[in-house]
Amino acid sequence: SQTIHQWPATLVQPVGSPLSLECTVEGTSNPNLYWYRQAAGRGLQLLFYSVGIGQISSEVPQNLSASRPQDRQFILSSKKLLLSDSGFYLCAWSVGRVGSPLHFGNGTRLTVT
Amino acid sequence: GQSLEQPSEVTAVEGAIVQINCTYQTSGFYGLSWYQQHDGGAPTFLSYNALDGLEETGRFSSFLSRSDSYGYLLLQELQMKDSASYFCATNSGNTPLVFGKGTRLSVIA
């Protein structure tokens, strides 16, 4: 069966510090991978998605970046965090077409202080 | 672009039936999905409608009317554990899902 691992679960970082969140998927090949962000009590905002190694589509211009160094690994990064980067970051995967049902990881709750 | 509208909050009594509506505006509509998210947790997929009509999965059903750009999630025999946020989502062809802002359902005794 397929599983998705996302870590860390919680993170507190000072403004201006770097960020690296990692997500890996097991049990499937060539998944579509996504990073969403959810502000407190709000909806899900798509940040990046990838349909293959090295292929990244950015949906929202900001100080975040994403990379996919391996088929089942997706990394979200920032060189300098802003207060507004605080939120709940969710990695997800799907198979087939990009709009197919999503399977989410448990998320990382990031607080920028 | 795509936009979805759903009520921000709904309250219902345990054992009752509740309907959560979703209207959408999108070009090249492909289908309507529903996700459930408990506080502090990750969203989980509930249902998907690509064609008009009702899809039933246990206590949950989802309906779609493509001509009205409208759908709803129906929860029957409500249980306390159904208290959660429910999101509708759409996509256009081979594009990622766009989510509504979510409906917070509170089930009361």
Question: Could you please describe the fold and organization of this structure?
Answer:
The complex is a heterodimer of chains A (113) and B (109). With 113 residues, chain A is mainly β. Chain A is built from no helices and 11 strands. With 109 residues, chain B is mainly β. Chain B has strands spanning 2-5, 9-13, 18-26, 31-37, 44-49, 53-57, 60-65, 70-75, 84-91, 98-99, 103-108. In chain B, strands 2, 4, 5, 9, 10 and 11 form a 6-stranded mixed sheet that branches. Chain B is globular and about 40 Å long. The A-B interface holds A 34, 42-44, 46, 49, 59, 90, 97-99, 101-107 and B 30-31, 33, 35, 41-45, 48, 87, 91-102.
Task: State the main characteristics.
heterodimer, A: 113 residues, mainly beta, seven-stranded mixed sheet, four-stranded antiparallel sheet, 0% helix, globular, B: 109 residues, six-stranded mixed sheet, five-stranded antiparallel sheet, 11 strands, 59% strand
Task: Give a summary of the structure in a few sentences.
The complex is a heterodimer of chains A (113) and B (109). With 113 residues, chain A is mainly beta.
What layout of secondary structure does this protein have?
The complex is a heterodimer of chains A (113) and B (109).
Chain A: E1 3-7, E2 10-13, E3 19-26, E4 32-38, E5 44-52, E6 55-58, E7 64-70, E8 73-78, E9 87-94, E10 103-104, E11 108-112
Parallel strand pairs in A: 2-11
Antiparallel strand pairs in A: 1-3, 3-8, 4-5, 4-9, 5-6, 7-8, 9-10, 9-11
Chain B: E1 2-5, E2 9-13, E3 18-26, E4 31-37, E5 44-49, E6 53-57, E7 60-65, E8 70-75, E9 84-91, E10 98-99, E11 103-108
Parallel strand pairs in B: 2-11
Antiparallel strand pairs in B: 1-3, 3-8, 4-5, 4-9, 6-7, 7-8, 9-10, 9-11
